[in-house]
């Protein structure tokens, strides 16, 4: 595994990311913007699922999921670019591993919420406890991913 990581880290692309004036800063900027979009939109959706702002019909939020997935793709690409620049250090970082785990689980939790949006909202407007639990867990996981991501710079 370390041979692959060292190969990635020693690639011309990794060198360009670290030595160019714009490689790393541009990737990090787009990564931050993608994160803001993903987390911001999912926070709005999760809070609505939890009962905040009941005046906003849940089905009206369905289109934001396309934007979330597009922004997530940008994050995945820019995250890979950043990872390649220092693959061994990131791979060995417990903060990095925790961040990836939190992101993976949080993105998986989008599915039950999206499925509920497609199925419709019950007449009483109250969503199943399992869907509300997914929304709450999503919020906690995104906070964990953000904190873990920031800690990577220091740990």
Q: Brief description of this entry?
A:
By secondary structure, the chain is mainly alpha-helical. The protein has 8 helices and no strands. The chain is elongated.
Structural class by SSE content:
mainly alpha
Order of helices and strands: HHHHHHHH
Using only CA atoms, what is the Rg? 18 Å
- What does the largest sheet look like? none
- Unreliable stretches, pLDDT < 50, 5 or more residues? none
Structure report:
It is a single chain. This protein has 155 residues and is mainly α. The chain has one domain (2-151). It has eight helices and no strands. α2 crosses α4 and α3 (23-49) runs antiparallel to α8. The longest helix has 27 residues, at 23-49. It is elongated. The two termini are 22 Å apart.
